[in-house]
């Protein structure tokens, strides 16, 4: 599990003028740009401001599963600037809530509008909202705001005229959420099971080391171990142990780490790749053989090409062989 935080600022310019441009019987729904964290881009949020009989603010969560009206427990706070200080107007209630209207709150809009009495604003600025077509037409007709169509929604740019009085709403949102990587969580759980020797039922002896492991994991990853355990008459299956004398403890542990997590420590791969490949070949672990061959092919040079040619001759490493052939073909050309 990893906790990720993200922040977002939304400035709504000329809000008073927009409110005056629509009739009292009309509603106005403004939506901020989507914001998210680069660490978890499939999950995002939008701030919403609805102006009707009352002004309401809420946060909408989009993703990661795109389930409509999903219940979520994302932590957040929504602030509005009030007299140069930030006031919390909505926050996580410490219970599950609808992802479409998180922190739905009624606010006193006039108390949060910032009137900059003496500051001169630039003649042109821009604020992005998403409105339905009918509301966009009303704004264009009554206020002179220039609106450009964008599919079924309208992207509007507000022309700001220099003025001595300005109504602006500043909103700030902070979001904190826990993301889970199920693959990493499983890898960590299985590695802990191996390192803590949790309910182990088989022993591998190599040099002076005794490595405790699990039959089911060995059988699942190695054709040789599966045959060994299928045949109860084999002495290794009966005794619950096997002695490996033609490799090092580091190579055995690297193979077992691959069994439990599907990956190998980079340092071990760099220092013991030939030995790891050999034991993977012996116990018919095809995926590990392929990874080792790819690594050796990437490290191929004039100093080790003879050694790798011997490995090809001894084990029949097709991936590595193709790489060696490509090098010789380039030399001939």
TrEMBL record:
CDD domains attached to this UniProt entry: BTB_POZ_ZBTB_KLHL-like (cd18186)
BTB domain ranges (all copies): 200-268
Highest taxon above the source species: Eukaryota
PANTHER family the record matches: SPECKLE-TYPE POZ PROTEIN (PTHR24413)
This protein's name: BTB domain-containing protein
Upper taxonomic lineage: Eukaryota, Metazoa, Ecdysozoa, Nematoda, Chromadorea
């Amino acid at each position: 599990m990893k906790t990720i935080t993200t922040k977002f600022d939304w400035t709504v310019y000329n809000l008073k003028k927009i409110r005056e441009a629509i009739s009292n019987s009309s509603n106005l729904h403004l939506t901020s740009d989507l914001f998210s964290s680069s660490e978890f881009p499939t999950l995002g949020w939008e701030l919403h401001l609805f102006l009707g009989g009352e002004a309401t603010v809420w946060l909408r969560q989009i993703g990661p599963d795109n389930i409509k009206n999903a219940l979520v427990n994302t932590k957040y706070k929504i602030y509005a600037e009030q007299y140069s200080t930030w006031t919390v107007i909505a926050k996580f209630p410490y219970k599950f809530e609808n992802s479409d209207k998180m922190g739905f709150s009624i606010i006193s809009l006039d108390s949060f509008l910032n009137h900059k009495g003496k500051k001169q604003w630039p003649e042109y600025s821009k604020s992005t909202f998403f409105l339905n077509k009918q509301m966009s037409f009303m704004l264009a007709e009554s206020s002179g705001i220039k609106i450009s169509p964008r599919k079924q929604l309208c992207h509007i740019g507000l022309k700001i005229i220099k003025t001595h009085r300005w109504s602006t709403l500043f909103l700030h949102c902070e979001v904190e959420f826990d993301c889970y990587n199920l693959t990493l969580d499983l890898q960590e759980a299985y590695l802990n099971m191996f390192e803590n020797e949790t309910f182990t039922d088989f022993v591998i002896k190599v040099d002076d080391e005794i490595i405790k492991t699990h039959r089911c994991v060995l059988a699942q990853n190695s054709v040789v171990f599966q045959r060994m355990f299928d045949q109860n008459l084999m002495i290794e299956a009966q005794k619950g142990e096997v002695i490996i004398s033609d490799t090092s403890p580091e190579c055995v542990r690297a193979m077992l780490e691959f069994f439990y997590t599907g990956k190998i420590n980079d340092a071990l791969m760099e220092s013991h790749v030939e030995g790891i490949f050999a034991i993977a070949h012996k116990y018919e672990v095809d995926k590990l053989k392929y990874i080792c061959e790819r690594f050796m092919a990437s490290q191929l040079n004039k100093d080790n090409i003879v050694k790798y040619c011997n490995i090809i001759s001894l084990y029949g490493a097709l991936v590595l062989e193709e790489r060696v052939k490509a090098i010789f073909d380039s030399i001939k050309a």
